């Protein structure tokens, strides 16, 4: 792929027509981009809603308006629409999308996986895309209500990583890297914080910390009420919040073992949402966050992505990464085992494991090198305060690493 000189992208394909895909589509269209939203034939999501509205997507909240969106369930048409493809499908649907994409020749396409959850572990050598990028978390807090996507809140920043060059392909020159990086930044309305390795992004995803303890410890309430309670304000009691903070400490310990200095969950929440005050601890945040309590947000069943995604594709690789460093992560392991009993299958067997990626017998150092290498002293998944004189998007983080695949 030749070096790009443009710093914006006029068209984007979004794969996955759930709440996040619809919110992303509305956000992109609100900034004048041509959007095609792909819904899998068996999971068409919001594409049906848009087609019933004659091709228009209604959006309210943080992204408000009525936007014209192209829709399709034909992956060929989706790929032809744009060289930039953003996937928003839950992690348990990523293998299906990966199988579809692997049937196409994509040396001119850039794949942006949102949320990544170590997608690269599955995608290694299966897709010949120009670049594969992963973000740490969804850009939006959002729900679909009736014929409208309701965007409750928009994150301030996202951590993002691009696959490193391999021995088979050469790294792009610096101008080409900066050109691609600028194009990707034009797709997001959030500030992008470029990370040097996949571990920095995968361990910065706070969804498993937030969702899993609350879902499992409120199992009785979820099954009795079908989710008719406020997941944050009511479900995240002082006891549940203490377990959440313990999981977070184990996450931070794993990150530290790989040379990462990530921030605690409450600091993350204070940084990424426009709150009317600083929260002192996680329970204070859960009860007080206006954004997170605009809707009840509780899962209606335990067969929900809060377990099927956040444990299978988040906690399982976290736990295995910890074992490589001699960390037992007892609270994380306990939640994985509880989820296995609740769901009726072995999460350790079916999760996104290092073994499945060919790294089961790898040492800590080998895992680190396979996923981008050790960090330099300046890398961080959280940008500096807004009044800092440093432009973090270009000065605090390592250059974008991306692969060039021959046609």
From TrEMBL:
It comes from the Eukaryota. One of its GO terms (biological process) is glycerol-3-phosphate catabolic process. Keywords: Oxidoreductase. InterPro entries: 6-PGluconate_DH-like_C_sf, 6PGD_dom2, G3P_DH_NAD-dep_N, NAD(P)-bd_dom_sf, Opine/Lysopine_DH, Opine_DH. Residues 12-113 form the Glycerol-3-phosphate dehydrogenase NAD-dependent N-terminal domain. Residues 194-342 form the Opine dehydrogenase domain. SUPFAM superfamilies: 6-phosphogluconate dehydrogenase C-terminal domain-like, NAD(P)-binding Rossmann-fold domains. GO terms for molecular function: glycerol-3-phosphate dehydrogenase (NAD+) activity; NAD binding. It catalyses: sn-glycerol 3-phosphate + NAD(+) = dihydroxyacetone phosphate + NADH + H(+). It holds the Pfam family Octopine_DH. Coiled coil: none annotated. This is Opine dehydrogenase domain-containing protein. The lineage of its organism: Eukaryota, Fungi, Dikarya, Ascomycota, Pezizomycotina.
């Amino acid at each position: 792929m030749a070096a790009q000189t443009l710093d914006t992208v006029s068209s984007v394909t979004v794969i996955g027509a759930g709440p996040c895909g619809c919110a992303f589509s509305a956000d992109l269209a609100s900034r004048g981009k041509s959007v095609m939203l792909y819904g899998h034939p068996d999971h068409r999501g919001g594409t049906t809603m848009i087609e019933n509205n004659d091709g228009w997507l209604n959006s309210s909240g943080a992204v408000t308006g009525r936007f014209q969106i192209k829709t399709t369930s034909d992956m060929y048409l989706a790929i032809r629409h744009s060289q930039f493809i953003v996937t928003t499908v839950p992690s348990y649907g990523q293998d299906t999308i990966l199988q579809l994409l692997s049937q196409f020749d994509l040396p001119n396409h850039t794949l942006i996986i949102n949320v990544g959850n170590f997608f690269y572990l599955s995608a290694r050598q299966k897709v010949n895309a120009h670049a594969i990028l992963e973000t740490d978390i969804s850009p939006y807090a959002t729900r679909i209500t009736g014929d409208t996507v309701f965007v409750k809140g928009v994150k301030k920043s996202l951590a993002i990583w691009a696959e490193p060059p391999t021995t088979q392909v050469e790294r792009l020159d610096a101008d080409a890297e900066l050109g691609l990086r600028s194009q990707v930044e034009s797709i997001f309305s959030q500030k992008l914080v470029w990370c040097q390795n996949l571990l920095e992004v995968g361990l910065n995803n706070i969804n498993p910390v937030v969702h899993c303890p609350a879902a499992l410890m409120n199992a009785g309430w979820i099954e009795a009420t079908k989710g008719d309670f406020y997941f944050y304000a009511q479900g995240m009691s002082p006891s549940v919040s203490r377990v959440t903070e313990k999981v977070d400490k184990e996450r931070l310990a794993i990150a530290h073992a790989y040379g990462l200095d990530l921030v605690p969950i409450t600091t993350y929440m204070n940084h990424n949402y426009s709150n009317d005050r600083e929260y002192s601890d996680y329970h204070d945040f859960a009860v007080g966050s206006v954004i997170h309590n605009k809707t009840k947000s509780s899962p209606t069943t335990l067969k929900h992505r809060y377990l099927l995604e956040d444990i299978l594709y988040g906690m399982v690789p976290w736990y295995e990464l910890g074992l490589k460093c001699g960390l037992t992560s007892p609270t994380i392991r306990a939640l994985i085992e509880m989820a296995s009993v609740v769901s009726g299958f072995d999460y350790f067997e079916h999760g996104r494991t290092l073994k499945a990626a060919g790294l089961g017998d790898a040492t800590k150092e080998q895992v680190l090198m396979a996923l981008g290498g050790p960090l330099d002293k300046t890398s961080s998944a959280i940008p500096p305060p807004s009044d800092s004189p440093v432009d973090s998007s270009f000065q605090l983080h390592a250059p974008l690493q991306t692969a060039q695949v021959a046609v």
